[in-house]
């Protein structure tokens, strides 16, 4: 699935573990919101490989399209970052034709699967700080994952124009043109996707196996609650220390301390490769980040500014939708970024 810039009649589709979301934009100086919507997902159908579950996902997508009167048949689909291998490699400054061959050879050293078993894509990010080499973003997804998503899309009556890691799409939605270097974290139910963006490009991408459900399980186990109660307590009290005698805070803290440690390791690794680039902030998105005091906890733990991303930052929309869209912002970053692939900042 290659990059594209001309086709404008398409939608961005984020197939998440708890819901499926779509966004359609109209290109312009500031792309305009044409449509958005979501449908809840029951059980684990989107992460299942069973054919019956794939068919169920296709039916949910059809319902989502019908409910929102979407006629477009072309789609840019998000892939879970945990299923995608991405790394930045350095190559000599050579012409593009030679570069393509060189990357094919180098990829074998970096991709933990046989190249015949993956779909491989790459993009030049720019020159290295010393100006002697090129930084190239290398992305690979297992054929089995690509085939699964393409099959789901085709059964829904759509055609996949491109597949992209959700976290790359999220950075496109959440950061404005010319944004200083930043960490973007999209926290989902199952895991947290991380990207460090500098000069408008993702320079480091990874997935951390800590998500909202990980926190809920810790709260349930520590406080002796069932899952429904643990969800309620987690999202009512979160990292607030002066509520419920700080019980939820203490239950969640070990899990989130592990998440902080992984974020810190990523920042330190980035600093070894780009010592002259200063990361200015951490930008959060994803439903679990709405836990009370979660942003404050991260800011204090990491010692850096933390802000909640606005998925609609680079999108124009009617003023009367302001409150509604802001309430949904944490859920739509990937879908907005997918819908803007090829032209959105």
Strand order of the largest sheet: 3-2-1-4-8
- Low-confidence stretches are 1-7
How far from one another are the termini?
A: 20 Å
The main sheet comes to: 5 strands, mixed
The CATH homologous superfamily of one domain corresponds to ATPase, nucleotide binding domain
Shape: globular
Beta content comes to 25-35%
Total number of helical segments? 9
| CA-based gyration radius | 20 Å
What is the annotated CATH architecture of one domain? Answer: 2-Layer Sandwich
Question: What is the fold-level CATH name, i.e. the topology of one domain?
Answer: Nucleotidyltransferase, domain 5
- The first-level CATH class of one domain is given as Alpha Beta
Fraction of residues in H or I helices: 25-40%
Short description:
With 345 residues, this protein is of the alpha/beta class. It has 9 helices and 13 strands.
How does this structure look, described?
The chain is an alpha/beta fold and 345 residues long. It has a domain at 177-309: Nucleotidyltransferase, domain 5 (2-Layer Sandwich). The protein contains nine helices and 13 strands. The protein has helices spanning 51-67, 96-110, 143-155, 166-174, 212-223, 227-237, 247-273, 294-302, 322-339; strands spanning 10-15, 19-26, 32-40, 74-79, 85-92, 118-127, 133-142, 159-165, 182-187, 192-198, 201-208, 281-285, 306-308. The chain has a five-stranded mixed sheet. Strands 11-10-9-12-13 form a five-stranded mixed sheet, with helices on both faces. The longest helix has 27 residues, at 247-273.
